C-alpha cells in the first residue's frame, strides 16, 4: 500500500495529541508520514504559569515558558513515534486569521504534500480552534496557487483536488454555538491498542496538569466518549470527513463484518472498560 502523508494542525499544542494522537500513533507504526503543526505558542493555556501569575502578579519569563510548551509537544510527539513537529510560535492571546501564518502553513502543505489533513471542527467555539481551521483552509488554497520562488509545485486547492480533511468530532462543549452545528462523526478510529502510548504522550504536557487532576478526567471522557460506547470499543478518536469518500462498492469495514459475531460479554466489556480500572 502506498504510504500516506498526514498533516495534523492544532490551534493549541496539546490539541495535536488530544484529538488525534492515538490515530497518528497507528499511522506512524504502519509507516505513514506524519507532520504535527501548531501555529501558536499555546501560552493562553499555560495554566501553571497563569495560576502563578494570578497568585504572585510577577511578569513571567515568556521565552522560557514558550520553550517549555515547545519541548512538551516535541516530547509528546516522540512518545507516538513522530519527529516532524512544526511549532510556528505565533502569539495566541488574540487568535485571528493572520496572512503570515496562512503563508507558513501553506509552505508546510507544499513541502509535505499531505493526502490527509486533520484539524478542528470549523464550528468549534474555542476561537483558537476555529481560526486554526480557517487558516488551514486558506493555506490549502494558497498552496494550490502560483507562488513563485517556492521549492514545490502547487497542490490541490479547496475547489479542486484538495486533500481529504478530517475534522475532530469529539463531542464538544454544550454551548449554543456547538449545539447548533453538531459534530456527527463519519469515521471512528479504534485507539484501544495505543491508549497507553497516548496517555504517556498527554502526560508530557506538564504545564497544563492541574493539581486537582481535572485534565485526566477530561481526557478519560474524551477518549471514552459516547461514540466509542455506541461503537462497542473501549477507546476511540472520532472524525468528520470533509469530502465523502469514493468507493467501487458500498464499504463495510472489517470491524463492521465482525461486530455481529462478537459475544455479549466481549461487547459489554468493551463498553465498560476504562483506563482507571487498571
Ligand atoms: Zn485547544
Write the layout of secondary structure elements.
Blueprint: E1 5-9, H1 15-18, H2 21-29, E2 33-40, H3 47-56, H4 62-79, E3 85-90, H5 99-112, E4 116-119, H6 127-143, E5 164-168, H7 176-180, E6 187-190, H8 195-202, H9 214-223, H10 226-230, E7 236-241, H11 254-259, H12 264-272
Parallel strand pairs: 1-2, 1-4, 2-3, 4-5
Antiparallel strand pairs: 5-7, 6-7
The structure holds zinc ion.
Zinc ion is lined by residues 11-12, 15, 126, 128-129.
Describe the structure.
The chain is of the alpha/beta class and 278 residues long. It has one domain: 3-Layer(aba) Sandwich (Rossmann fold), CATH 3.40.50.10320. Helices cover 41% and strands 14% of the residues. Strands 3-2-1-4-5-7-6 form a seven-stranded mixed β-sheet, with helices on both faces. Helix 4 (62-79) runs antiparallel to helix 8 (195-202) and helix 5 packs across helix 6. The longest helix has 18 residues, at 62-79. It is globular. The protein binds zinc ion (ZN). Zinc ion (ZN) binds at residues 11-12, 15, 126, 128-129.
Q: What is the count of DSSP helices, taking H or I runs of 4+ residues?
A: 12
Separation of termini? 36 Å
Rg, nearest Å: 19 Å
What best-fitting shape do the alpha-carbon axes yield? globular
How much strand content do the residues show?
5-15%
Class from helix and strand fractions: alpha/beta
Supply database-style keywords.
Rossmann fold; binds zinc ion; 7 strands; 7-stranded mixed sheet; 278 residues; alpha/beta
